[in-house]
Design goal:
By secondary structure, the chain is an all-alpha fold. The protein has helices spanning 7-16, 22-69, 75-148. α2 (22-69) runs antiparallel to α3 (75-148).
Length: 149
């Protein structure tokens, strides 16, 4: 009777012939996690600042609405109150939109800085990996050449 092939051992031998640098994978995972944390911090900080701007804007608007809803002595005072409300509302809207634009600008700058730093880190890591692979292949070739003699 023929002996059954042990595929488990065969696969272990096959995979053992291709060494994997688990430290490189571990480092890549850690670097990715650190990058995600930095991007999350940028996004959370922007969300917090946007919420503060929105909250302040809402409070100011409600305070102005309160002034508009107060009873007036003359009918013309209602028209003036509405005109003043619309004017101040337009002014505050412009200020708040500029504040939102500053938040967006800051997020954009921080994101570009993170991407540039990540690109440089990836380039450095790739250079190190290529150098290590070259050194390993050279060492293996020397070893094979010495064994052949």
């Amino acid at each position: 009777m023929a002996k059954a092939q042990d595929f488990s051992t065969m696969m272990q031998d096959f995979l053992g012939a291709f060494p994997v640098d688990t430290k490189a994978l571990e480092d890549a995972f850690k670097n990715q996690a650190a990058l995600n944390e930095k991007f999350s911090q940028v996004a959370l900080q922007a969300a917090e600042q946007s919420a503060e701007i929105s909250s302040k804007w809402t409070k100011e608007t409600l305070a102005r609405v309160n002034d508009v809803t107060k009873a007036k002595q003359e009918p013309a005072d209602y028209a003036k109150a509405m005109t003043d409300f619309a004017s101040s509302n337009a002014e505050v809207a412009a200020e708040n939109m500029a504040a939102f634009a500053e938040v967006a600008k800051k997020v954009q700058m921080e994101t570009v800085e993170l991407m540039m730093a990540t690109g440089k880190t990836m380039q450095d890591d790739a250079s190190k990996a290529v150098k290590k692979a070259t050194d390993d292949v050279t060492a293996a070739a020397k070893k094979a050449g010495a064994a052949a003699k």
